[in-house]
Design goal:
Helix 11 packs parallel to helix 12. It is globular and about 80 Å long. It is built from twelve helices and 19 strands. Strands 8-7-6-5-4-3-2-1-17-18-19 form an eleven-stranded mixed sheet. The longest helix has 15 residues. The chain folds into two domains: 235 residues, Metallo-beta-lactamase, Chain A (4-Layer Sandwich), CATH 3.60.15; 36 residues, no CATH class. The structure holds zinc ion (2 copies). The site of one zinc ion has 4 residues, from loops.
Length: 376
């Protein structure tokens, strides 16, 4: 199926009349990932599931959610997590859930040496929130289903798991993947914000091309010959003719990838170091007139998001996370477009409820939400 990204909130910092705060879903064959869950997340998630039921031929089952990826600890990205976990508990979830997000190397050191958190740590660091959530019932024991709490120092690829039920921590050799995922992978990308932060990269291995059954039937091949060709083994027929397995498969679908930036200044290292990606959903808090603000608060302008997309080899840039001053997105789009004018990068702006679909063959469609369903 490729990927289906659902953007449930497109406002930065606080909800406005038109937009809610951050929270997205990435649906793939292996399951569902949630990227950030700001205030009111679970209501928006429930509404989106109802919309899917009514207007789409696929559904999103809560039981398919395997991982919650946080981009950073600002409350507009995290305040909805604990209430949602409590709902999962009330719904008697038993499947494991991975919760994963960034912190600093100093925090990891202090956790591993069982000492005090570093001086001057931001109140919004995930470690502070996670500890308070654990006190408020957010542990496997109290929720009744296994939750893995994994914090990472993204740039140095170091990972620690918090074990709140035993009040201990565990250093991990590598970042865990969502349980049971085999075709798709998650990876953090270093970003640049006022607290430890990362974007999340989702990639799928790509699928084998279709087996040419018709040709196999025309040649009256035996079951064993067909099975051999399907597995990629060349076959020799009774008359000595060789059949090459590669001629019986259509082209493989390539590797697909999508990225959700979270909050970041433009041109963050993790994102620009990619060689390509199908879709980059990038924050675009400010218009160019406010570029000083973007620099000071480590956010991006629409044109900065576009410059980042150019450097990351993205095929399609989706703008999101708009400041409260932004009503329509026309100006955002026109400023981003100016940067992309000589490129092939497609551009769109997200509203709450939109879906961006990437098919197995790499076709990208932005489905805009309207009260009567999605339209393109
Ligand atoms: Zn934000
Ligand atoms: Zn932020």
């Amino acid at each position: 199926m490729g990927f289906d990204i659902h953007i449930l909130g497109t406002s930065s910092a606080r909800p406005t009349g038109l937009r809610q705060v951050s929270g997205s879903l990435v649906v793939c064959d292996d399951g569902v990932a949630i990227v950030d869950a700001g205030e009111g997340f679970q209501s928006r998630f429930a509404v989106q599931r109802r919309r899917m039921k009514q207007f789409s031929d696929s559904q999103i089952k809560v039981g398919r959610v395997d991982v919650l990826c946080l981009t950073h600890g600002h409350l507009d990205h995290t305040w909805g997590v604990l209430p949602w976990l409590h709902t999962l508990s009330l719904d008697k979830r038993d499947k494991p859930l991975l919760v994963i997000g960034p912190t600093s190397g100093e925090v990891l050191d202090s956790l591993l040496s069982n000492s005090k958190l570093p001086e001057g740590i931001s109140n919004s660091d995930l470690i502070i929130q996670w500890r308070s959530w654990h006190q408020l019932g957010g542990t496997s024991k109290q929720l009744g289903f296994p939750v893995r709490w994994v914090l990472g120092d993204i740039e140095n690829d170091r990972w620690v798991e918090l074990l709140p039920d035993s009040n201990s921590v565990l250093e991990l050799e590598k970042m865990p993947q969502p349980k049971g995922w085999s075709e798709n992978k998650i990876k953090p990308l270093a970003t640049n914000h006022t607290v430890p932060s990362c974007g999340w990269h989702f990639s799928s291995k790509g699928k084998k091309g279709k087996f040419d059954r018709l040709r196999a039937a025309e040649l009256k091949l035996t079951e064993t010959q067909r099975a051999g060709l399907a597995k990629g083994e060349d076959q020799t027929l009774a008359d000595g003719k060789m059949l090459s397995a590669s001629e019986f498969r259509g082209p493989d679908s390539g590797v697909l990838s999508v990225v959700l930036s979270g909050d970041t200044s433009e041109m963050s290292k993790g994102i620009t170091s990619m060689e390509n990606c199908n879709v980059l959903v990038h924050e675009s808090t400010f218009l160019e007139e406010w570029s000083e603000h973007a620099k000071n608060y480590l956010h991006s302008t629409a044109s900065g998001a576009a410059r980042t997309a150019l450097s990351s080899g993205a095929k399609h840039l989706v703008l999101t996370h708009f400041g409260a001053r932004i009503k329509g997105t026309e100006d955002m789009l026109s400023q981003a477009k100016q940067q992309l004018v000589d490129s092939q990068v497609a551009l769109s702006a997200a509203s709450d409820g939109d879906r961006i679909q990437v098919s197995d063959s790499g076709k990208i469609t932005h489905h805009y939400w309207g009260e009567e369903g999605w339209f393109n």
